[in-house]
Specification:
- The complex is a heterodimer.
- In chain A, the strands form nine sheets. A five-stranded parallel beta sheet of chain A has the order 8-7-6-12-23, with helices on one face. Chain A has a five-stranded parallel beta sheet with strand order 14-21-15-16-17.
- In chain A, α1 packs parallel to α5 and α8 packs parallel to α9.
- Chain A is elongated, with a radius of gyration of 31 Å.
- Chain A is an alpha/beta fold.
- By secondary structure, chain B is mostly helical.
- Chain B is built from twelve helices and no strands.
- In chain B, α1 crosses α7 and α8 runs antiparallel to α9.
- Chain B is globular.
- The two termini of chain B are 18 Å apart.
- The chains are: A alpha/beta, B mainly alpha.
- The interface between A and B is medium-sized, with 23 and 17 residues.
Chain lengths: 568, 189
């Protein structure tokens, strides 16, 4: 016999406004295994939790059902309260009578009350059969793999190394520094990219905790959070060399690649050497002899910048806003006017997106102090006629149709996810969005995590970002890894699948069906084994197993049948 | 010096501040008869379309009332810009399409130069003698005089000499070099 306590929450009016909670309490109290049943306005509040704790003491309860909201909301709250009174956390269950009864059946209060009673009683049937469990403890390797040596990857690597955790920094190209190396200067403080990077580059190369692998790519990642095994292939003069590293966490900072100019043919992309993208213009600004246009080496006197060239255009280009271009163009137009004071610069824009501290002022100054002419309107066509660039556009504010013959056109094309990131995502078992940028675990609350535990994102791998944002994300990803590494052991929920080796025939059906790669055949004998670190307790294995040799702890067949029996 | 720079210098206005909100044109009492309106005149200057600006009737239709300047959120006073454009047009030899406009412009300044202020009756008589069109608008002129809106006799203010000096200093002299065509208009047309 168990001594189950049932606690029915009103959730203000969320539950009590529809359900007759007293009736639910009476139904639960009538169950022979229920020693105590009560209701309260807010069970999750301090007095509500105190009510549960007092009842456990006074009625010697050994299992608890809280009939309230979804377990995703407050299961942890109530389990903690139970554990404080000596009731094992896994002997406390939530019965969801809010989302599953009061909210969805507001117009049928009586039927909803009956349904809520059924839900509560079925959970009573489950919880009285729940085993007392302790979290699984797993060891972890406190070394991380950072993929990508641009500004966000460098930041993440340095932060981790400075915290005392060794880092393997893998960079695909022969040199560290990423795209920022090619920047002539950055906006706001106008320091050049190389200069901004220099301190970080030298610290990374000297750091005892950082091992840099240039010209290298990650080929395979096996294992799980805290205990990954990464295979890295490095190109060396004598051929490819492969390394294997044990790491506990992975930070993906693969950055971006420029949009091919050929993909904006209506803007003359690829048709004339003096129609360039912003990254090319960055390099042109860095030329030691000063800015020269590619075709004939003359100093360009009229430069036209075209924003949103291929972005925000689902029909012809990419649907997303590339975010950094408004500021990049403002910076480049200012830099041009500084280098060529007698020249003129104009910018065709759709609208100016200058969110960020000091950003709007920076763009305003481009127009007001540097004399950059901002024209709001779309460029219809750029083409080369007999070697001369012709640009047709509209200034929608003045309504003037313009036909210009600039001697340099700079197209602000969008940032694309780095080439090869899709293949890498498969290797790392993480997902990418429809544009190819890697997906974060939650768009607001978990921006640098992925849905694969132990794999984190930083910088433009997740979406277009400027330098300060990339630095912030690199630091955030490093902090997440430190949080993981600061644990003595990895704690894992014990309610995972287990295999009864006496019944298992080793057919392997569960191995194929497991969506998390958590199952394999034992190396010792032909039975399936479960990696508890990877198991998410979905139960697919328990359903597929022809011999009923596997089930999820505290969700065994007997419990499920008892729950169904209670409601039928 | 480009026309844009010359106009900015002469009018003491920074036209880069214009963000094309159209408030000037929306409030302008003369805009209905203009070809562009004050906002587009600024944009055309920025684009180096000097000939289109100087050849437009807009500079001569501007009454200098200052409504545009009062409405401008960026504090651009458009009236001196228009005045600078009229001066630039005269220097460059561009004449308004309606010859009466130039005659009226010169007579108005002449009256102001001698009296230190405007006097409508004098201006009206001089303009009629100059244009030869003696009897147009006569009825409304008589009604204005009868209502006491227009004094018959001119009045000269005490500081008329200072006003005359200001007008002289501001009037472009014959032989003053016209603005060079802007680099933009050279390359973009």
């Amino acid at each position: 016999m168990s001594r189950v306590g049932v606690f029915v929450c009103h959730c203000g009016n969320n539950i009590a406004g529809t359900l007759n909670v007293e009736q639910v309490v009476r139904a639960a109290g009538a169950h022979p295994e229920v020693s105590f049943a009560a209701d309260y306005r807010y069970m999750c509040s301090d007095p509500g939790q105190e009510l549960i704790r007092t009842a456990i003491r006074e009625h010697q309860l050994d299992a608890v059902v809280v009939a309230a909201c979804s377990p995703a909301m407050h299961e942890a709250t109530f389990r903690k309260a139970c554990a404080a009174e000596g009731v094992n956390a896994y002997r406390c269950e939530s019965a969801n009578i809010r989302e599953q009864a009061s909210w969805v059946h507001q117009k049928q209060p009586e039927a909803a009350t009956d349904k809520a009673s059924d839900i509560v009683l079925s959970v009573v049937e489950k919880v009285r059969r729940n085993a007392s469990l302790a979290p699984i403890r797993l060891p972890l390797t406190r070394r991380s793999l950072v993929i990508g040596g641009g500004i966000s990857g460098l930041t993440a690597a340095l932060d981790l190394a400075d915290a005392g955790y060794p880092v393997i920094l893998v960079e695909r190209s022969p040199a560290l520094g990423g795209k920022m190396r090619q920047f002539s200067r950055s906006y706001l403080n106008l320091a050049d990219g190389e200069q901004l990077l220099q301190d970080r580059l030298s610290r990374v190369s000297e750091h005892v905790q950082i091992q840099v692998l240039p010209s290298a790519e990650v080929r395979q990642l096996s294992g799980y959070v805290g205990n990954f095994e990464a295979r890295v292939a490095r190109q060396e003069p004598e051929g490819e060399v492969e390394f294997t590293f044990e790491v506990g966490a992975v930070i993906v900072a693969t950055g971006w690649d420029p949009y091919p100019l050929e993909r904006v043919p209506w803007l003359g992309g690829g048709s004339h050497p003096d129609i360039v993208d912003t990254l090319t213009f960055e390099r042109m600004l860095l030329q030691p002899e000063g800015l020269r246009r590619p075709s004939d080496g003359r100093v360009p006197q009229q430069v036209v910048f075209v924003q949103c060239a291929g972005s925000r255009d689902p029909e012809r280009g990419v649907p997303y806003c590339s975010k950094v271009c408004c500021m990049v163009v403002a910076k480049q137009a200012r830099a041009y006017r500084q280098q060529v004071p007698q020249g003129s610069a104009c910018v065709f824009y759709t609208d100016i997106r200058s969110g960020g501290k000091g950003y709007e002022e920076y763009v305003q100054q481009a127009a007001e102090q540097y004399g950059v002419l901002y024209l709001r309107g779309e460029v219809g066509r750029v083409e080369a006629v007999d070697g001369q660039i012709r640009l047709q556009g509209e200034d929608t504010l003045s309504g003037l149709q313009l036909e210009l013959t600039p001697d340099l056109v700079v197209l602000a094309t969008p940032l694309l996810p780095a080439a090869g990131v899709q293949e890498l995502a498969q290797v790392l078992r993480i997902s990418a969005d429809s544009n190819g940028f890697l997906s974060e675990a939650h768009p607001k609350l978990r921006p640098v995590e992925t849905l694969t535990a132990g794999v984190f994102l930083a910088g433009c791998s997740q979406g277009p970002k400027d330098i300060p944002e990339s630095v912030a994300q690199g630091g955030a990803a490093a902090a997440k890894v430190m949080q993981l590494f600061s644990q003595e052991m990895l704690l894992q929920s014990p309610t995972v699948a287990v295999v009864d080796a006496e019944i298992c025939s080793g057919c392997g059906a569960c191995i194929e069906t497991c969506p998390y790669g958590a199952r394999s055949l034992s190396r010792v004998r032909p039975v399936a084994v479960v990696n508890p670190a990877l198991c998410q307790a979905c139960g697919a294995c328990a359903v597929i197993c022809p011999n009923k040799a596997t089930e999820v702890v505290n969700w065994d067949a007997g419990q499920i049948l008892a729950m169904v029996g209670e409601v039928s | 010096m480009t026309l844009l720079e010359a106009v900015e210098q002469r009018s003491h206005q920074d036209l880069r501040l214009c963000f094309q909100c159209h408030k000037c044109t929306a409030g302008c009492p003369s805009a209905v008869d203009m070809l562009f309106g004050p906002d587009r005149v600024i944009r055309l200057l920025q684009l180096g379309e000097d000939r289109r600006v100087l050849g437009s009737p807009d500079l001569w239709l501007c009454a200098g009332c200052g409504t545009c300047g009062a409405r401008c959120p960026n504090g651009i006073d458009m009236a001196p810009v228009m005045e600078s454009l009229r001066a630039a047009a005269l220097v460059s030899g561009t004449r308004p399409g309606d010859p009466g406009a130039l005659a009226f412009h010169r007579l108005f300044l002449g009256v102001a130069r001698r009296l230190g202020r405007s006097h409508e009756a004098t201006l009206l008589i001089l303009y009629k003698l100059r244009s030869g069109n003696l009897f147009s608008d006569l009825g409304s002129g008589i009604r204005l005089v009868l209502k006491g809106k227009v004094p018959l006799l001119p009045h000269r203010i005490a500081g008329w000499r200072e006003v005359a000096q200001t007008i002289d200093a501001y009037t472009p002299r014959a032989g003053e070099p016209p603005c060079e065509e802007s680099a933009r208009s050279k390359a973009w047309n």
